[in-house]
Specification:
This protein is of the alpha/beta class and about 425 residues long. The protein has twelve helices and 16 strands. Helix 3 crosses helix 4 and helix 5 packs across helix 6.
Length: about 425
């Protein structure tokens, strides 16, 4: 027999949004008809004598779905997920944690035992939980009462400062260059670049894409030594164990050096022409590889493919065949169709319209459409002013591709958390 359950998720260690995302993916194996609330940030609930190191804000959300597991079986599964995600069995009760999973409701069941209390004993006392419950199910009554979660939430008057979503998965762009097309020079200084990286993570980026060589049309190609001089001081100041970083580079020398010195999550290669030895090093390091389709880098505006998937399909098949021969798993190969590189605005429109075709490639897909010049076919705005157009395309691509590479992460989170609120309320 199925029962509808509500589960609270919280994280205040490391990359909190990624921890929540990974937990939800695991819960999809436990629950059917799963729905998620928005994600909100709250201050930790702590005893008066808690160490300063425990004063870390939480990201919180609620997941609801159906299960055939008994309350005790569900509780056991949640504890297993917590341990799989690094939470120790004897973790301090109030201490920071990568993930916290609590059963809030199990149908209208009421349980009060030393091990398990349902409804969760903190549900009525925690304003943020009442708020999240009311966004999901405002008319649902609290078990054994006539009070709805809407009425309980209205009494608490809780208001979140910011909201986030887990999907779409956002790659935040960090250009440590003087001449990138949209934000050239803004983050050239290492201190400003590091601050921008930290802000993008706080705003909801899953991974950062740091580039020190501009690939805009007509960009001057710097030496590998200068590229390294731009990258190193930024990477030295980032917590790379907790902040996933992709390096946007197509130079073998840079990649080999990066893999020896830093725990890089991705290499983002816009050329597709790395040496075999470099591909071997990336694979052996356990690093993901994103490869973009381009006829030339920087792009030459007069060189473009025909407005169809034919050339891209051939390219994708060749890339997957080559990389799997080097030992890459298909989940570690990310393909980028390369909008803005060798495609006219008209071809781009057709390819975006038929983007589902890309599922034939059999790999995760990243699309870099943020502030690109093809939006000039719509209006004459400058690159820095194209976030509205970028959001429109991001909304269209959601659910069709795996990653969106964007400049304005904060706007994306505001937009999609609003959409998530509308879609999750029932």
């Amino acid at each position: 027999m199925k029962s509808t359950v509500y589960i609270a998720l919280g994280s205040n260690l490391g990359h909190r949004l990624n921890h929540l995302r990974n937990a939800v993916l695991k819960l999809r194996e436990v629950l059917t008809d799963l729905r998620t609330s928005i994600v909100i940030e709250t201050e930790p609930l702590l005893p008066e004598n808690a160490p300063i190191s425990w004063h870390l804000p939480y990201l919180n959300m609620i997941v609801t779905g159906d299960t055939t597991l008994s309350p005790q079986e569900l509780f056991d599964r949640l504890q297993t997920i917590e341990r799989q995600m690094g939470r120790e069995k004897n973790h301090p009760f109030w201490g920071p944690r990568t993930i916290d999973l609590d059963i809030l409701l199990y149908g209208d069941t009421v349980i009060d035992t030393p091990q398990l209390t349902i409804p969760h004993k903190g549900l009525k006392e925690r304003d943020f939980l009442l708020h999240l419950m009311a966004t999901l199910a405002p008319t649902l009554p609290y078990p054994a009462t006539t009070q709805t979660f809407e009425s309980l939430a209205l009494k608490s008057q809780f208001q979140p400062k910011k909201s986030f979503v887990l999907f779409p998965r956002l790659m935040g762009i960090v250009n440590v260059t003087p001449d990138s097309f949209s934000d050239g020079g803004l983050y050239k200084e290492p201190k400003l670049a590091v601050e921008h990286c930290q802000n993008l993570i706080a705003e909801g980026a899953e991974i950062l894409d740091i580039g020190a060589q501009s690939t805009r049309p007509g960009a001057v190609q710097i030496s590998p030594e200068e590229e390294w001089e731009r990258l190193q001081p930024v990477l030295d100041q980032l917590d790379l164990k907790n902040i996933p970083v992709s390096i946007d580079t197509f130079r073998d020398k840079i990649i080999q050096k990066l893999l020896k010195q830093y725990p890089i999550a991705w290499i983002n290669d816009v050329s597709g022409k790395l040496k075999d030895s470099t591909l071997e090093a990336i694979q052996q390091a356990g690093c993901k590889l994103c490869v973009m389709h381009a006829l030339s880098v920087p792009p030459i505006k007069t060189e473009n493919i025909a407005p169809s998937w034919d050339a891209l399909d051939v390219w994708a098949e060749q890339q997957v065949s080559k990389l799997t021969a080097f030992g890459f798993k298909t989940n570690d190969i990310i393909l980028d169709p390369g909008f803005g590189f060798g495609k006219t605005a008209y071809a781009t429109g057709l390819l975006l319209k038929t983007i589902e075709h890309i599922h034939n490639w059999g790999c995760p897909i990243l699309v870099g459409h943020s502030r690109k010049s093809f939006y000039r076919s719509l209006n004459a705005t400058e690159a820095q002013e194209r976030d509205i157009e970028t959001l429109a395309v991001s909304q269209y691509l959601t659910g069709k591709v795996d990653y969106l590479r964007v400049h304005n992460v904060a706007w994306h989170q505001r937009f999609f958390s609003t959409q998530q609120w509308l879609e999750s309320c029932k």
